[in-house]
Amino acid sequence: MRETISINDYYKNLLLKHLRLFLVILCLQSSWAEAQEHHFTNPQVRVQVTAETLNVSTTGYPNHKWEKVNPNRPSKQNFNFKIPRHPKIASRTTAVPSRGPIAVAVNGVVFFGPEDREGKIALENHGLDSCQGHPAPSGVYHYHCTPGCVHKDSPNQHSPVIGYAFDGFKIYGLQGERGLLPKDLDRCNGHTDKGRGYHYHTTENFPFVLGCYRGTPTLANYDRNQ
Ligand SMILES: [Zn+2]
Ligand SMILES: [Zn+2]
User: In which region does residue 179 sit, left (phi positive, over 0), alpha (psi from -120 to 50) or beta (all else)?
Assistant: First the structure.
């Protein structure tokens, strides 16, 4: 009798253990499915969708080669960004912080603003590797301009989504309609078209990614220590 109970318990425990594992796998799969649905390309990026936000969890570690261009080394982070799902144009623009992440790319790597720690244009002041990124002293690998290893533009076509600004508006690459460089970008580096609504572009010249936020950025996303 005792043996029967213990065998039953054994199977019960086994079942529970597997059920738990199964649920974890199910959760991870659904958050990866959500991630893909929202343009993310890196299986290390997790996305949970709520009514108002995309909750993006990422290590921020590059999923492509990086080269030593400064004394720093990239390290894995524990970023959790809340990206507004229904961004709206705000009554006034918000300045992009001059330090730390301002947006997240579809591979989970972050964008920094155009200026680096000394307030100089990062592109001119510091070396960027061939993917247009480099690690900060904190180990946060980041892009300052169009990240060549995140996406490839097709000729004669609008660039795909390459990231999300912290105000929720999407960021596209260099190419506008019919593959031409957009000529109507505002000072935040964004414009509006019929299909996409308001969205940002990266540019070959200043500010390269975002000049300011046209919507309302989620303040909790800033890490002042970067
Ligand atoms: Zn930098
Ligand atoms: Zn556009």
Answer: left
